[in-house]
Amino acid sequence: MIDRCGRTIDYLRISVTDRCNLRCIYCMPENGVKLVERSQILREEEIIRISRVMAQLGITRIKLTGGEPLVHVRMPELVCQIKEIPGIKKVTLTTNGTLLKEQMKELAEAGLDAVNISLDTLNRDCFQKITRRDLLNEALEGIQEALRYPGISVKINCVPLGIEGQDLCEIAELARKYPVHVRFIEMMPIGCGMEFKGMSEEELTELLEKRFGSLTLYQGEPLGNGPSRYYEAQGFEGKLGFISAVSHKFCKDCNRIRLTSQGYLKTCLQYSAGKDLREIIRNGGTDEELTEAILEALEQKPDGHQFLEKAQADDTEKLCMSQIGG
């Protein structure tokens, strides 16, 4: 698939649910968000059908997200079915890790290629403050379980918040001790995220180099689907990465589109524009009609976000990240 800017789109992120067992302060309000009726969430067969059409159009990599995708009752089966679709080369998962220990074996057997685990601190009190839940031990057990499968790439995603007790160097230490890549993801000004300033990539680099010495830009084979810039540090088993979508804009190289849990195809995280694929399916639409809608959406994919400028107010996304899909 080629969008109107000439970018090749080969990566699809699918949110399988808007439910989550955490209540992260930058993702949703303390009391959560209003959940949609389960009947409005894409069914398993609908996800598979859309994935097949996407694969025929050129999507080769699919990331399964949420909410928290592991609250979905048939994640291993879903992974297995997507892996069997001709043209799909990789199926990966983003999770908070708290439910991973019990499901990792089945996910590995299903053919999962990689898992990204969101972890913002190793301090229990700070973890509880950020997630509003006391589940740090479960998250750490999930990471350890994932590391038992060396054929599956493991990455840790950390969102710097600039709050007391987060200790970002301690998170970075995981890449020194274990064969995992730790990525620091810049705060996105969406939903509750607009309330936090976070930390810049430059501030983070200075902090990490004070602790671990010089960071050297990694120039080897790509380590994932996205735009993360990876660095090597002496004595580290894994790499340190930065995803700074706002301050270091990489829209010109964007290769992704998103499907929300309700079947809405989004071509840019910032904007609400897109196509309702669920409506097409449930109104008896054909695969040809799905294809047409997907290609029409690509023709409207923006040049890039305008988080640092004032975007068009009537088209700016107003949903939280848990509702869009992480």
Automatic annotation (TrEMBL):
Family the UniProt entry places it in:
Belongs to the radical SAM superfamily. MoaA family.
Instruction: List the catalytic activities from the record.
Output: GTP + AH2 + S-adenosyl-L-methionine = (8S)-3',8-cyclo-7,8-dihydroguanosine 5'-triphosphate + 5'-deoxyadenosine + L-methionine + A + H(+)
Q: Could you tell me which InterPro entries the record lists for this protein? A: Aldolase_TIM, Elp3/MiaA/NifB-like_rSAM, MoaA, MoaA-like, MoaA_NifB_PqqE_Fe-S-bd_CS, MoaA_twitch, MoCo_biosynth_MoaA/MoaC, rSAM
Q: Which CDD domains match?
A: Radical_SAM, Twitch_MoaA
What Enzyme Commission number does this protein have? 4.1.99.22
Under the heading HAMAP family, the entry gives: MoaA_B
* Keywords attached to this entry: 4Fe-4S, GTP-binding, Iron, Iron-sulfur, Lyase, Metal-binding, Molybdenum cofactor biosynthesis, Nucleotide-binding, S-adenosyl-L-methionine
Entry keyword annotation includes Metal-binding: yes
- For the Radical SAM core domain, which residue ranges apply? 4-225
Kindly list the positions annotated as binding [4Fe-4S] cluster 2: 251, 254, 268
| Source species, domain of life | Bacteria
Role according to the record: Catalyzes the cyclization of GTP to (8S)-3',8-cyclo-7,8-dihydroguanosine 5'-triphosphate.
Sites binding [4Fe-4S] cluster 1 sit at: 20, 24, 27
Which co-factors does it depend on?
[4Fe-4S] cluster
Q: What is this protein called?
A: GTP 3',8-cyclase
Residues that coordinate or bind S-adenosyl-L-methionine: 26, 67, 118, 188
Q: How is the cofactor bound?
A: Binds 2 [4Fe-4S] clusters. Binds 1 [4Fe-4S] cluster coordinated with 3 cysteines and an exchangeable S-adenosyl-L-methionine and 1 [4Fe-4S] cluster coordinated with 3 cysteines and the GTP-derived substrate.
The record ties this protein, via Pfam families, to:
Mob_synth_C, Radical_SAM
NCBIfam families xrefs: moaA
Instruction: Tell me the pathway.
Output: Cofactor biosynthesis; molybdopterin biosynthesis
The annotated subunit structure for this chain is: Monomer and homodimer.
Q: Which PANTHER family match?
A: MOLYBDENUM COFACTOR BIOSYNTHESIS PROTEIN 1, MOLYBDOPTERIN COFACTOR SYNTHESIS PROTEIN A
